[in-house]
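# step 3/5: fold
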Amino acid sequence: MEIDQLSGFLVFGVKDDEVNVVALRADDVTHSLMVINHEHHEIHEGTTFRYSDSLIMASAATQVYLITTPNTTKWAHFTLDIDGSAITAVDVYEGSDRSGTTLQTAYNANRNSNNINTTIIHKDISGGTTDGTKIYGYKSGSSSNQSRSAAILDHDSEVVLKQNTKYLVRITSGTTDNLVNVLFNWYEHTSLTS
């Protein structure tokens, strides 16, 4: 392994396979190591997926999404971002026995990757007898000055979804003409420990 000296700091290489050593890179000005976080790395790996939707909801209207994880140790590390222009409630349930109605298309965040998501999103549900166990609830917004007092749920701390499980996300509008945006973001990573 080759060692370079850079402004008093030793910079070591990392092994990318059994033969090659790749030098760590540093910023030319600050000499800080150039790194990305794990979530960003998953985008580069082609294992990050996104689904978005936008709705205009009436008062007391609901929209339900069913998220189904595969029975593998390739677990979904999931975040959600939902905002409404007025009163909006979001409830998330785990262990639903409902069936999904309309399969949705998620896209790979690395547009050069051919990887396809194994966690599935459906819009609307049918059948079954239970939504599951409520694991998260959020309600916010107001009926007046809608654009100034929006309901925003930005759950950017990931939740690792349980394998072989159905999750139900129910959005309920408390106001007419509620503009609601939905973003589900996840990467699929095979667990080293299960």
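# step 4/5: annotate
The CA atoms of residues 79 and 156 lie 5 Å apart.
# step 5/5: archive (pending)
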